[in-house]
């Protein structure tokens, strides 16, 4: 039984791998559930032992992959505080923000063999929450798009400029209007705490979506 | 002593004085004399007996012995070479002679001192001329030249001095006293004394004076040592000096009156005289003035003395009779509590008292060890050295293996085996191995039945009581407790009864067995059993008398032994201690078992008594291990064995699980800890309350995180007497309370503490119970009543305490003849020294706590309790009077209250003046009394319905008028302005801040977030309301305009005043904040209790924040942020950090995510199900939520937000919404709104948006 700590080299990588994999699934699912794209481009697949919807549109998939690829180093270094999937209306005003708030658990360790399956259970719960979140959310106006924002900790952005993970795929500072929503309401969806990662997912929803 | 070459120094000189002899030293002296040889007087007597100078080591006076009330004897010996044959002219001296205060001129004085001019010479008559303090000195110093007469003479003198209070309670410094004395001698015409006139000179050339004195065979003032008053029987013995008149007419001029007096006056033993002074019926003066002061007890002709269950009437003419050990059991009857010294008498002879004071003394001893260690910079641990040597030997003998890896903590519980017995027989080998019991009875164990008793009835009663408690349940295992610390009569009788011999119970001695040997235990004898009963069970049972001195010596030796190993000791009682050996083991590298055997061997060697040691990784386990170790063994409970071990333990062996809890557990089907482990935390908390439940939950798993506390804080100081209380008149009871207060004062001062809450406990004979209980002087079957009052300021003044106690007493309206026990307790203690610094702060705290009703455990459900039936008028009036209760002078919100309570109050003298506040909702009569004690600064006037008319009538006319005026004024106000009080009822701004923005890392221990679920329904009726001053901007102008002019003006002035006071408040607030969680045990009333006015307008909360409130988008948000931030610097970080602006990716986060934070808990619960249970219980069991509880919930929710557990928060809020809005009480939905509003603010700040609540 080995106990790895934060100092161990691969620890951040483990977390980042797991999270990015999860985020990919989650983004696809959100896009499906929130009907950002027609349901025709999604295919039912199985992940975490539950059915999920994955897009089969190559460009969309590429975009998501690339984005997450760039998020990964941040998560590895525990520099990403939030990963936000913003759903915007035609005027590019956000109507919904799915916020994955990532923090380190109080006790960081990979000590147990059951850890991974435990994490998988937790992630599955989050996925399930996403797939039923339309129950607590109002319908979105037609013609929505989406974008992915990352809230970083401290001065992580500075380094990001220097090291571009993917060429010609740089991060940009988000527009104020993409970040801010007037009169938003917060709907907590799920909080998971494992030895590996602590994450909570909540949705910020604009009060009047059809304006 | 002089004859044998000793010298006696009047003044302490560091260079010349070799030994300091004392039996009683105040703290300051102990500090001052640290490093000197301070020995007990026995050293001299024993040395004389032995004919050589004995080693002083055994006679060292270590800890304060205030329990023993010996006046100190300051005797310095210059030359201790030749002690043999020395005669010490010790003189019995009434302990309190010098420590009395009050300066009452006593009529007895002349008669005492005057009649004996022949012996004392002029000195005797002189006291009349002198200030009383000097008198006492003189008389105690006077020795007639005529040896045979000396005794009598001295006796007289002492009598005289006894009655002489020191003028005005002024403490004499040595110089002053000396000088006075010299003057006095001068006037007396003693040529010789006149040489000494100058006290200063006198002081510095002792030798000269010595010779001087030598010339006068007649006028010798020799070493009249104030002989320790024989408060404890055995200790008296060595001091029989006075009764053996010294054949040596030589004079030792070095009487030490000055230092001695200083000591005396420092010493806490004021008991004897003070009470009598304070008592209005001072008829016992004659007792003291008769020539028997030297006796261990002032044998009051009126008092009956009980010796071993039989009666001896005190013989006032016998000076020298009471020498035997049985003295300790002689208890004067408090028939008519007016007898001055009765209380101290009681305490002098009560073994429980001794044992309990020892406990605190040893605790203090340990504390002093700590101090000494600190000052000395590192103590020598002889025991530790020994261990090291042992270890070295062992490792050299074998191979030097590395120190065992005992990184785990290790607690040792050291407990003497059958302490009282083994001490009692340690010098009596003939008794070893025989059944022995320590008891006061040494007769055949039979006494005649007294008239008026009905033991059968009592036994029946106890039997029934016991049956209710399920007769069969196992009693707490007492096998390792050598003495029952509180053998209540119930226990005793139960034992007797339990052994099935009830029929001739009455004829058997009721003297209980304090401790019995293991042999006796085999025969079925138990601790606390009545001796007569035990004798039946075990005819060969030998009785051993108490020997308190020996107990003390042995106990001290044990503690010294332990202290030679480590200073991480906690004294649990006089014969058991906890030792945190973690560090020691790691350092020395021995195993716990080795350490334990070393300690046990050491204790055996030094005390001759065996000790058992239990070891475990925490206190709980160590104590349980001791059970297995007994007798005379040791047991190490290894962590891997814990689970198996504890599973089989009976629940009653857990600390804190007594009979009642045990039976309650048994009713749940739980008898062993293993059973208990099956019970969920939620269930336990439901059954036993959140805190106890949690403790049980942990204990039964062997978890215990209590640290070994070498330094302990006392929580309360009390004096209680339930023996021989038989009053006939109210005055007697009053004077008894006076005396008891003095005892409390003594203890408070001894501990250097002051308290703010006074609780009066009274035991009343249960109606129908026999007038005389079976146990002589006992209390029989009683109802216990208690009342408490909170004072505005901490006090240690016996007078003040007595005042309050008497008021409480009157409020209870009891039949004094049925009183069987009286106790006074002072709580909410503050350390004395820092008081000035805390004063201002405390007054604010008072403000916050003011309306918290002291939760008096009243069994008579509030005969006088305000009966507020939520009629709107009444609640308004309580609101107003609550306002009144708040100190007018304390800076912030108080001024407002002044305003509301209109002109009754005088303007505060100055803002910083800490004017005492009083808590509201007290039994009515307090109020007028308070008016008294606070010199008309009183601002607390309860509503008319709450005031006892008779008390009101007893008030001086002016006061009464004032009170009545207030009422009428109030009524006017209410009529004019029914909404007046509601319109100005804001949430307590600072309170909100405390809870909604707790410092992130200063989470209070789980236990303190008690969700108060008041089980006393009576209490909810009389809620008080605190009226804090809202921000002016938050006051609805309309409402303000609607107020009567007078009120408006006062409000305005209050606001302007507050502005001045504001900065002060802000400074103090951080302090308050830290304090707040700790203060959580007291209940604060929920503001919105004021429901009736609230219904008329918008919710008070909403009204608080009209649009004028700056920087707030939501109208229903609590205090403006500016105020918050200033108020709560630590909250600033968490709340402002992730504000909306920081949502941009490039804005740095203030919050550090790396600090692991504790999981937020609500009343110790963190699991969702537990929290739900708690909340449901909260909402369903009480009709009106208390503000404090609501704040706790808000705080918890805030923590959840900060802990990024929005999901849980969401669930909890939804849950609360469901249960609270379902509740019929509208206050609950208001409470919910309040909680949600607060949470939303936090969420808004953290996340930039508010929760969607569906």
TrEMBL record, chain A:
PANTHER family named in the record: MITOTIC SPINDLE ASSEMBLY CHECKPOINT PROTEIN MAD2, MITOTIC SPINDLE ASSEMBLY CHECKPOINT PROTEIN MAD2B
Example GO BP: DNA damage response
InterPro entries attached to this UniProt entry: HORMA_dom, HORMA_dom_sf, Mad2-like
SUPFAM superfamilies per UniProt: The spindle assembly checkpoint protein mad2 (SSF56019)
Entry keywords, A to Z: DNA damage, Nucleus
Protein name (Swiss-Prot/TrEMBL): Mitotic spindle assembly checkpoint protein MAD2B
Residue intervals of the HORMA domain: 13-203
Location(s) in or outside the cell: Nucleus
Organism: Clupea harengus (Atlantic herring)
Cellular component, GO, one term: nucleus
TrEMBL record, chain B:
Name of the top EC class for this enzyme: transferase
Purpose: Deoxycytidyl transferase involved in DNA repair. Transfers a dCMP residue from dCTP to the 3'-end of a DNA primer in a template-dependent reaction. May assist in the first step in the bypass of abasic lesions by the insertion of a nucleotide opposite the lesion. Required for normal induction of mutations by physical and chemical agents.
Biased composition (Pro residues): 997-1007
CDD domains (alphabetical): BRCT_Rev1, PolY_Rev1, Rev1_C, Rev1_UBM2
Organism from which the protein derives: Clupea harengus (Atlantic herring)
Transmembrane segment boundaries: none
Protein's name in the database: DNA repair protein REV1
Subcellular localization(s) per the UniProt record: Nucleus
A molecular function (GO) term: metal ion binding
Cofactor binding description: Binds 2 magnesium ions.
Keywords: DNA damage, DNA repair, DNA synthesis, DNA-binding, Magnesium, Metal-binding, Nucleotidyltransferase, Nucleus, Transferase
